[in-house]
Design goal:
32% helix, alpha+beta, seven-stranded mixed beta sheet, 7 helices, 16 strands, five-stranded mixed beta sheet
């Protein structure tokens, strides 16, 4: 795996700038509290996609390829090319994570960009344009939000703040005891980033999350002192033939054994 010094600060800056530019491309289509101005249609499994998703995807594919031509590409809005499996480096991107939220005027959507090497993220950026929150991490160099270091404390919350699908939250509460059940954040990348910043203590993830939903957040969590694993405690691997994952939990390292214990019982 590459050392932190192998990715220059200029690459991190360029990806940060790309995420902000991507947000600027999407913003003209966003309408707070109401239906998007963008054309909208549905893919398989009734998953929405808008012309904003496609515009952002096209921009990022072209721009990131120019930054690191040797890296392959995996995105929610691009037909998968299996040649990526032969590459050590791959960009994994969700141009608009939370398209349903974006298309209905909910503020919690984001742009998610990860650079993965040999199956694990080494660079991650998540940008939430409506909140103007930019989360980023580079392997071994810490996690940041808008230039401020994210570092989870050693304190154990009495009534943990939990966000995620209701059936998983209910299961967690049955075995943990009193919790604060927070509203589900529709952008999974943003939900996990909020665990890294400490505004959510436990982020729960239903099955069928994809690489592009979680790869950038995974590194940000790790660098902030948290873990993203399945309920057996195994970290996800990326750039596999099938980029889907099972149920997961994101939680500060100190709470991880207790959290996965609760979800396994």
């Amino acid at each position: 795996m590459l050392a932190p010094s192998d990715f220059s600060p200029s690459l991190g800056q360029a990806v940060r700038d790309a995420a902000r530019q991507a947000g600027a491309i999407a913003l003209p289509f966003y309408r707070s509290g109401t239906k998007t101005a963008a054309r909208l249609w549905y893919k398989e499994h009734s998953s929405p996609v808008t012309e904003a998703d496609i515009a952002v995807d096209t921009f990022l594919k072209n721009h990131l390829a120019g930054l690191l031509p040797e890296a392959a590409w995996l995105s929610e809005e691009t037909a998968d090319n299996p040649t990526r499996l032969d590459k050590r480096l791959v960009w994994i991107v969700d141009p608009i994570d939370g398209t349903r939220a974006f298309s209905t005027g909910h503020p919690d959507w984001s742009v998610s960009i990860a650079l993965v090497e040999d199956g694990r993220p080494v660079l991650g950026v998540i940008y939430a344009p409506i909140h103007d929150h930019l989360y980023e991490a580079r392997i071994g160099s810490g996690a940041w939000r808008n230039g401020e270091r994210l570092q989870l404390s050693g304190a154990v919350p009495k009534d943990p703040r939990v966000a995620g699908p209701k059936p998983l939250v209910d299961r967690f509460a049955r075995h943990i005891g009193p919790i604060q059940h927070l509203p589900k954040v529709p952008s999974l990348a943003l939900r996990l980033a909020r665990v890294a910043e400490g505004s959510i203590d436990v982020g729960l993830v239903s099955s069928n999350a994809h690489d592009w939903d979680i790869a950038a957040a995974d590194l940000i969590l790790h660098e902030a002192g948290a873990l993203l694993t399945d309920f057996a405690g195994t970290a996800p691997a990326y750039n596999k033939p099938q980029p889907r994952h099972g149920e997961m939990v994101a939680v500060a390292s100190r709470l991880h054994p207790r959290a996965i214990g609760a979800m396994r019982t």
